[in-house]
Each structure stands twice: as structure tokens, then as C-alpha cells.
Write a structure and sequence with these properties.
Layout lengths: L1 H23 L20 E4 L7 E3 L2 H5 L3 H10 L12 E4 L4 E4 L20 E11 L2 E2 L2 E2 L3 E6 L3 H6 L4 H8 L2 E24 L2 E23 L12 E2 L21 E26 L4 E11 L13 E9 L5 E10 L8 E13 L2 E12 L8 E14 L2 E10 L5 E2 L3 E9 L1
């Protein structure tokens, strides 16, 4: 009963801290983060054959390409899994000495669940921190995104009633856009778990997120030196936001041939609340089996990429088995999400090795597979290596490093996670 009281107090502490963070959380300045990229250049690039005449509003193709950023970030947040509620230790009642005894097992994985539960009355509290500095989107480096499109649409040129020779001057003009995008996610997980029975665990985790986004964009109108007539270019309209009127170099030395824009914005606050239950239902010769369910409740602002738009439910099948010092494990799950958040099949496969009673080394592979197959963020595959260290008592330190194995989605070269955990 004393341990259950501690777990309840820990859970209440998580809720109270999350409530405080929610009250003091800071949204992105001015407009939500999900509107920052579409708002570059005022939302469109206004080109004209003469800056004083009617203009042709061109969509910023780079902003369109990055439209799936919200769902991509949802996957990225999943790449920093909720800290395992299995705990580093398991306690079982020993009737011979009339007390709970710690099981002789590895300290577990940093990213995966194992079938074993905490044990009746045992509990854990933990805090994990993850840092992700994103480097690429669908294989393209974020610091060098480019698009190339026609500067003038046929509909616009038709409206001008130009002669054939005049039309030829502008029909081949190109609108080139370059974007340097920086995106960083810092995520803290606060977790509390309790063993309700020898085979049943319940846990709660709250994420607190900080998103920083900055961008520098440049656009220019050029007349192709080859393949085109090379006979002059159009201009940006006088009302184009960020238009260069002089003082630049190269193409930009000519007034109204270039435009620039950018922003730097940060949002932070609570992300999602995760309620999780696990039932260890079978032990076999080759695998111990459990099922788990995770209900995700959005408590943060999805428009600022802090969390999901709608509640999510993810059932999991968990298999693991210790074979001496080596403990392989497999987690299979499916995240049922709204269309806006995008549902996903998820899996984690790996093993942890008890190098010493106080040190466990682990290695995993993680997969996230969108079900809408829209050629964006469809298959994200990661590898992870890490360790768990028990320096004293029932206190555990853990570190995990993830690396991309393919180019799909929004990716970082390395994802860093550190965790502290205490079992009581």
C-alpha cells in the first residue's frame, strides 16, 4: 500500500507539473508554427512582366512540399518513444524469506518494452530528455531546399494580349527559390508507473516539448542562359514582400529581380499525455508474451507542432525472453490516429545484453510505416544503440543514440536521449 501511495503521489506530481507548464507555456510568436512556411513572402510570389502592371501570384512550391511537416513531426516525436514502463528491475514475492526479492535480469532496453511487469506494488518514476536537430526531409537537406518553376503562367500571359515575340521574352523565365530551414525538437518525458498485480502494470507519461524553427528564403527571376531565348526577364511586383530594389549581386543587382524573407520562432509547452496499461499473459519456452494499450490525449497546441490534433490509441503485442545474459525482444503496434495525424504501423526489434549486473548494453531497430502511402514519410527506419547503468540502489541512468537507415520523412543524423529512473 505504501508503494501504491508513492506511485499515486508521483502521478499527481506529473499532472500538477504538466498543468503548470500548460499555464506558462509559450506559443509561437505572432502566428502558429504550422503557418510560418506558407506565410513566407506574404504567401505568394508576385511576378510581373513590368512591375507596375498586373502581376501573377505564384504559389511558393517549397512551402507546398513541406505541407506534410506536421505529420512528419508526429513520426519524429514517436522516434523518441515513451520511456519504457517495464522498469529496470522486477520484484517477486519470496515466501521463504517473506519479502519481495529483486529478479536477476538485465536492466532492459531504452526504447522497447519487455513482457515482464514490475510486480505487485512496485513502482517507478523517471524523466527522459531527447534532443533532435533535424537535417533532412525526404532525403533533401533542410539547409538547401530548392524549387524551380515557371515565372509566369499561361493564363497570365494570355490575359496580357502580348504579341508572339513579346510573349516569347517571358514564357521561358524561371522562378528559382532557395530555403535554408532549421528545425529543432527538445522533448522531456515525465513518467510514473505502478504494478497493480504481478502481471498488470499501469503508467502515465507526460511530454513537455520545445520546438524551434527558423528559415531564410530567397527567390529570383532568371532567364535561362541555355534552352531559353535569353532575351530579358520579368520582375517582382512592387507589392512583393521582401523585394530587393538594389544593392545586391549578380541577378539581384537589377532592381525587382530578387526577394528575400525569413523568420525565427519558438513554441514550448505540454505535448501529449500517455495513459498505458500492460498485461503479461503468458510465458513459453521461447517467448514471454504481453499486450499493452496506450491512449494518447493531446494537451498541447498541435498548430505549433507540440502534439497530436486528436486522441490516439495504440495496441501493442510484446514478446521478450531472457536467454542467459542476452534478452531479445519484439514490439508490434498500430497507432490509430485521425486522418490529420496519420495512422501508423510501428515495430521495435532488438536485444539487450547484461554485460554486468550494473550495466546493460542494448541495440534495436525501429520502424514507422504510414498507412496512407502518399510518398511522404511512408517508411521511417531507425537503428538505436544505448546503455543502462545502475550506479547504486535502485537508481538507473540510461543513454540512447538513434541513427537513420533510410531517407524517408523528417530525419536527424543522430537522436540523443538520456534518462534517469528510480524504482521503489
Amino acid at each position: 500500500m505504501e508503494n501504491r501511495g508513492r506511485a499515486l503521489n508521483a502521478a499527481i506530481g506529473v499532472v500538477l507539473l504538466g498543468s503548470w507548464v500548460l499555464l506558462v507555456s509559450r506559443p509561437a510568436q505572432g502566428i502558429p508554427l504550422d503557418q510560418r512556411l506558407p506565410s513566407l513572402f506574404g504567401g505568394s510570389l508576385n511576378t510581373s512582366v513590368n512591375r507596375f502592371s498586373a502581376n501573377d501570384a505564384q504559389r511558393v512550391l517549397l512551402a507546398d512540399r513541406l505541407q506534410p511537416l506536421s505529420s512528419a513531426l508526429a513520426v519524429a516525436r514517436s522516434q523518441a518513444p515513451i520511456p519504457s514502463a517495464s522498469g529496470a528491475f522486477r520484484f517477486a514475492w519470496d515466501p521463504e524469506i517473506d519479502t519481495f526479492v529483486r529478479s536477476d535480469q538485465s536492466l532492459g532496453s531504452g526504447v522497447a518494452e519487455r513482457a515482464q511487469t514490475l510486480g505487485r506494488g512496485a513502482g517507478i518514476v523517471s524523466m527522459a530528455y531527447t534532443h533532435i536537430d533535424f537535417d533532412s526531409f525526404e532525403g533533401q537537406p533542410l539547409d538547401n531546399l530548392q524549387s524551380n518553376q515557371r515565372a509566369f503562367s499561361d493564363a497570365y500571359l494570355n490575359r496580357l494580349n502580348l504579341s508572339q515575340s513579346e510573349r516569347a521574352k517571358f514564357a521561358d523565365d524561371r522562378l528559382e527559390t532557395h530555403l535554408n530551414l532549421g528545425l529543432t525538437l527538445d522533448q522531456v518525458f515525465l513518467t510514473a508507473a505502478i504494478g497493480l498485480a504481478d502481471s498488470v502494470d499501469m503508467s502515465m507519461a507526460l511530454s513537455i516539448n520545445r520546438i524551434h524553427m527558423q528559415a531564410t528564403a530567397a527567390a529570383q527571376i532568371v532567364d535561362p542562359p541555355s534552352g531559353g531565348t535569353g532575351n530579358g526577364t520579368g520582375q517582382f511586383a512592387t507589392n512583393q514582400r521582401g523585394v530587393t530594389v538594389g544593392g545586391g549581386a549578380g541577378v539581384c543587382s537589377t532592381p525587382f529581380h530578387c526577394a528575400g524573407d525569413g523568420f525565427s520562432a519558438t513554441a514550448w509547452g505540454t505535448g501529449d499525455l500517455f495513459l498505458r496499461g500492460k498485461w503479461h499473459f503468458a510465458d513459453t519456452q521461447f517467448a514471454d508474451l504481453a499486450v499493452a494499450g496506450v491512449l494518447t490525449l493531446p494537451t498541447g497546441n498541435a498548430d505549433d507542432f507540440l502534439g497530436f490534433h486528436d486522441p490516439t490509441f495504440t495496441p501493442w503485442l510484446i514478446a521478450s525472453k531472457p536467454f542467459g545474459r542476452l534478452s531479445p525482444h519484439l514490439n508490434l503496434g498500430y497507432a490509430f490516429r485521425s486522418e490529420e495525424d496519420v495512422s501508423q504501423a510501428q515495430w521495435i526489434a532488438g536485444a539487450d545484453l547484461m554485460a554486468f549486473t550494473w550495466l546493460t548494453l542494448n541495440s534495436d531497430f525501429l520502424g514507422f510505416h504510414d498507412t496512407n502511402s502518399d510518398q511522404t514519410n511512408d517508411n521511417v527506419i531507425q537503428s538505436a544503440v544505448g546503455f543502462k547503468l545502475n550506479p547504486f540502489g535502485q537508481f538507473v541512468l540510461a543513454g540512447t543514440f538513434q541513427f537513420p537507415l533510410n531517407n524517408d520523412g523528417l530525419r536527424a543524423d543522430v537522436i540523443y536521449t538520456g534518462q534517469v529512473e528510480w524504482t521503489f
